[in-house]
Structure formats: C-alpha cells, structure tokens
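Figure 3 (text version): structure tokens given as input.
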C-alpha cells in the first residue's frame, strides 16, 4: 500500500473496455463507446490513474493496458453476477431509485452478495491507491465502497458519483438496508448527483434516518469529518459529436437512411437501452394513435425505434421486450402498408457513426422516460444538429429536462399531452425549430463532459479531508 500506488483510482462496476473476438477467433480488448471513458480519460492521464472494474463474464484476467490506460479487472463468479449485478443492483436498486416504475425485489441473499462484492472492490482500491490519493467511485452498484475504503485507508480523498436518480425518502425507506447504504455513501468526502433534488433527498435522509447534523449541502459527522452532497449534471463530448455528425461519411449515411425509409416528410426517432424506465411503450402507443386518428399518415411519417439489448437475463426486461414487440407488430399490422411500416423497429446496437447518422436523419427525437438520471441520448441529438434544426420531445422526468428547457417537454404518463407534443414538433415552423435548437446547443457546448469531470475533481480536491469543529451527537436513529 501507500508508497508505490496510483494518485487516482477510478472504481466503477464495468471496465471501460469490452472483450471482442474477431472472425479468426482471436480475442482482444476494445474501448467501450460512451462518454464516461472519454470524460475520465484526460483526468486519468493527468493523475497517473488506474481503473478498477468488472470486465464482464466470469473469466479472470491480469491487470492490463489499453491505449496506455491502466486497467485492473475484478472477476465475478456466476453467482455474483446473478445476485450482485442482476439481483441487488438491477432487480432491487434500479427500480427503487427510478420511482418504483417496476416493483423492486428484496432478497437477503442478494444483499449479502452485494456487500461481498463491494468489499472486494474496496480492498482492491485500497491496495492500488498511493498515500493521500484520490479515489472516484461510480454508481449504484458500489454504494458501500466509500465507507469500506475509508476504514481501510483513512488517508484517501474519496468521491462518489451516482449516475441514476436518488429517490425521495418516501420511496427509499422501503429498502431494508437503507441505513447501511446511507452510511456507505457517507464514507465519501463528496457525494455527487445528477440534480440538486437528488442531493437534497440524500441530505434529508441522512438527517432523518441516520440522525447526523446537516446544514444545506453539508453533513457533519461525529468523527469530525464533513461530507458534501451536490449536483454535477453529467454531459457528453459535444464537440466530438458535432464533428462526427458533420463528417462526409455521416452526412451521406444520414441521406441514405432517409432514402431507405422512403423519404417520408418527417422521421421520428427513439434510441434507448431496452429498459422499462425509458417509456418506449407509451411513446409508440402515442404515435400509433396519431396515425389511427388520422393526424399523421404512414406516407408522411415513420417512427424509427432502436432498442438496444440490455439486462436480458432479468425477468422484467424479458417481459418488456415481449410487450413492445407485440405492440410494434400490432401497430404495423393495423396501420402499415406494403413498404411503409409505421414503426421501423431495430433490436440491436450500433457503432457511434451510425448513431450520429440516425440523429442527423431524424426530424423529431423522442425521449420519454418515466424517470432518468440525465439521458445522454437527448444531449447527443442536440449536439449532432449542426444545422440548428430538428425537434426534441423530452420527458419532464429526465434529468436533461432541467437544462434543455427549449425542448417540447412532456409528461410520459399523459397520453394526450404526449400526442399533442409529437404533433406540434411534427409541424413546427423552421424558425421556431432553429430558435429552440440554437439555445439548447449553446447550453450543451458550454456544459460538456469535460466541464463535468473537471468540476467534480476540482470540488473533490478542494473539499476533501476538510474537518469541522462542531459538537455533534453520535448518530442514533435507524
Ligand atoms: C445511465 C443513466 C445517465 C446507446 N445505444 C448505443 C449507444 N448508446 C449510448 C448512447 C448514450 C448511452 O449509451 C446511453 O446513455 P443514457 O444516458 O441515454 O442512458 P443509460 O444507459 O440509462 O445511462 C442515465 C447516464 O447513465 C450517464 O450518467 O444519463 O440517466 O440511466 O451515450 O449514445 N452507443 C453506441 N451504440 C449503441 O447502439 N455506440
């Protein structure tokens, strides 16, 4: 420990790489697509960083480098994947933190495995961190790591960032292990959330459930430490997306996509992981009704829905896929014509270039989650609209709605409201589209993912290890 370690340790459920096998059967690591890696990469390089995470699957690997980034894989057993990842993380915490959109399951064995896996991550981080190093822990799968790590290494500065919403006390208190989770997070010096409301939910719970003294965004612990909870809305590599979307290959591909769809007047687009929080079913129903009501025709409009395979071994997800595919079949069967389906449904994932071409080809981007920490797809669409046109229909319940005020904001539970917004976005006047898109593009250019990572790190390094001299009672409540 201590003398030979790294100055920055990133701890996340997944490593930022995927194991891929080529046609000849040769395996190699490939950088995963996504903003988080590109955001954290410069910080990692500047601080001699290392990234600890699960490489996927059950195979064990030794630490390795990809593009000169130090990566330390932590293997999981089949039982741990089932109970920590699919179970407690995605069957308990994910639905609980997303407004109980689906019913969370509470199983004591899942919790025990969650504790065990969190401990392993904490122990590995403790081994790798240099004296006084900074450790940045990510997301709901690892909420116990900050406290476990602090017990092992009180010298560290520890930051935690939650990518998903943090629920109000009324929902959070269903969790049988609510106190352990709050205490786990309180091991950090800085706890970051997407929105100020989530940070307030956390502070209120800490006061009510753990009994610590709090003031605004600060928690005063009996051991003299101060923990800060604040919002750091995540973002995307706006410049990178704009550049990609203006490249010749992407511009041509976008035109080819429109052509292949029969050059309809307007293309609606949804791109989501196939997840019940994303509101895919409701938006397709709204679109189908607009056609059956006669407000839109399949000659004029098509809805392209990309549903990226996700968590397919979890039961809720399998059922959701069946429901959506039945709905798409019914809409197309009832309303489509030969060569003119109402919904063009794709259950697959695409390279970044194809995503950019889809964003560029689409006139109306439809993002309607019931609850979403941020939603990067909405921001990526805006970044790719370099011609300052195109409409964004966005759920009020996505974190992104706080920043993208010029979108057509909708309540995804309100079917008629959603239909009206889709129709308005469909027929909006070009000047209106430009006015709205320009404002949203400005917001995203100024608040990109680099600014996000920099502000979290700056805050962590300034705030870390600050003590207080308040007299506070030891915590008693549960
Ligand atoms: C969680 C929170 C929060 C998707 N399909 C493909 C692909 N993607 C990329 C998108 C986007 C990302 O994945 C999805 O991010 P979202 O934010 O939309 O949603 P979650 O996966 O639920 O993410 C969310 C986020 O964490 C970050 O904090 O915003 O609220 O739920 O970047 O482009 N990328 C490629 N091919 C695909 O098929 N290349």
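Below: residues designed for each position.
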């Amino acid at each position: 420990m201590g003398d030979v370690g790294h100055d920055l340790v990133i701890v996340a459920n997944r490593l930022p790489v995927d194991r891929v096998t080529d046609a000849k059967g040769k395996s190699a690591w490939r950088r995963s697509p996504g903003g988080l890696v590109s955001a954290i990469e410069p910080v990692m390089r500047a601080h001699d960083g290392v990234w600890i995470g699960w490489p996927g699957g059950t195979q064990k690997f030794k630490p390795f480098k990809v593009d000169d980034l130090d990566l330390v894989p932590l293997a999981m057993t089949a039982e741990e994947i089932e109970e920590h990842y699919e179970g407690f993380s995605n069957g308990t915490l994910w639905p609980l933190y997303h407004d109980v959109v689906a019913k969370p399951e509470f199983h004591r064995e899942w919790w025990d495995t969650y504790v065990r896996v969190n401990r392993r991550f904490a122990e590995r981080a403790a081994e790798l961190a240099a004296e006084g190093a900074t450790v940045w822990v990510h997301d709901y799968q690892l909420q116990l790591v900050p406290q476990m790590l602090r017990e092992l290494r009180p010298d560290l500065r520890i930051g935690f960032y939650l990518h998903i919403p943090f629920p109000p006390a009324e929902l959070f208190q269903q969790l049988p292990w609510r106190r352990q989770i709050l205490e786990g997070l309180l091991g950090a010096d800085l706890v970051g959330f997407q929105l100020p409301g989530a940070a307030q939910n956390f502070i209120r719970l800490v006061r009510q459930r753990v009994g610590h003294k709090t003031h605004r965004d600060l928690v005063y612990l009996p051991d003299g430490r101060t923990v800060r909870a604040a919002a750091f809305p995540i973002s995307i590599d706006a410049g990178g997306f704009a550049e990609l979307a203006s490249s010749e290959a992407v511009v041509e591909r976008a035109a080819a996509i429109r052509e292949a769809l029969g050059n309809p007047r307007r293309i609606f687009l949804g791109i989501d992981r196939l997840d019940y929080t994303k509101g895919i079913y409701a938006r397709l129903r709204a679109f189908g009704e607009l056609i059956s009501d006669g407000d839109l025709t399949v000659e004029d409009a098509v809805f392209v829905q990309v549903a990226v395979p996700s968590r397919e071994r979890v039961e809720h997800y399998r059922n959701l896929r069946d429901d959506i595919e039945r709905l798409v079949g019914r809409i197309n069967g009832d309303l489509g014509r030969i060569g003119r389906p109402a919904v063009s449904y794709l259950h697959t994932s695409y390279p970044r270039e194809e995503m950019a071409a889809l964003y560029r080809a689409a006139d109306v981007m439809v993002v309607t989650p019931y609850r979403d920490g941020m939603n990067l797809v909405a921001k990526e669409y805006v970044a790719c609209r370099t011609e300052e046109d195109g409409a964004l229909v966005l759920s009020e319940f996505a974190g992104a709605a706080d920043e993208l005020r010029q979108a057509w904001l909708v309540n995804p539970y309100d079917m008629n409201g959603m239909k009206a917004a889709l129709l308005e976005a469909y027929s909006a006047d070009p000047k209106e589209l430009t006015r709205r898109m320009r404002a949203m593009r400005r917001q995203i250019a100024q608040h990109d993912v680099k600014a996000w990572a920099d502000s979290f790190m700056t805050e962590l390094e300034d705030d870390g290890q600050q003590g207080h001299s308040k007299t506070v009672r030891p915590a008693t409540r549960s």
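The first helix runs from residue 35 to 46.
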